Amino acid sequence: MEAYNKLLLNNKAWVEDKLQLGEDYFSEMALEQNPTFLWIGCSDSRVPAEDVTGAQPGELFVHRNIANMVIHTDYSMLSVLQFSVEVLKVKHVIVCGHYGCGGVKAAMSKSDFGLINNWLRHIKDVYRLHATQLDAIVDVTERQDKLVELNVIEQVQHLADISFVQRTWEDHQRPVLHGWVYDMRTGYLNNLIKVDPGEHSHDVYRYDFLT
Ligand code: CO
Known about the structure:
Low-confidence stretches: none
Bound molecules: cobalt (II) ion
CATH architecture of the largest domain: 3-Layer(aba) Sandwich
Shape: globular
Oligomer: single chain
Number of domains: 2
Strand order of the largest sheet: 2-1-3-4-5
Strand content: 15-25%
Structural class: alpha/beta
Helix content: 40-55%
CATH superfamily of the largest domain: Carbonic anhydrase
CATH topology of the largest domain: Beta-carbonic Anhydrase, Chain A
Mean pLDDT: 97
Radius of gyration: 19 Å
Number of strands: 5
């Protein structure tokens, strides 16, 4: 059997399983979505957002990219963020990194990966911000783990610096921003940082809203 056929067969079994919960399961799900959370995670196949959090369909709005980055010129991420914050009215935005992240490892190397160098460059920038602390860590895995954590915190702060996030903070006192790290070696999530509405990272990123 071709590998992809397994996925299609699994889907049939999954439908049967869900219909056990009620014959209207899918027709009700199709009516609308009302997720509480936006999850910004890594594309890594070992970090499935719903599985590690026990979330059900309809609970998480999800954006994933290499190394769970929040880059202020990334219109895909920004569109997902604006839609989820302004239209879906999510209460929490979670940036979830993971130890052993290939993107972070690649950014710490001097290898040339072609086009993706320009994406990884943003992680190199986080390294430079914390170079003194990171260079002092002798063990390579420990240094990678620390950069994974510092990168998550940096991306959460990037969320706090976005004008429409700040406007929603002012108008609706949400969303709360979270930075988590998933440990593939144990399965546990590590809660690193929580930023409440109005907690600005630096004054230079702060907007005044006149209306
Ligand atoms: Co990763």
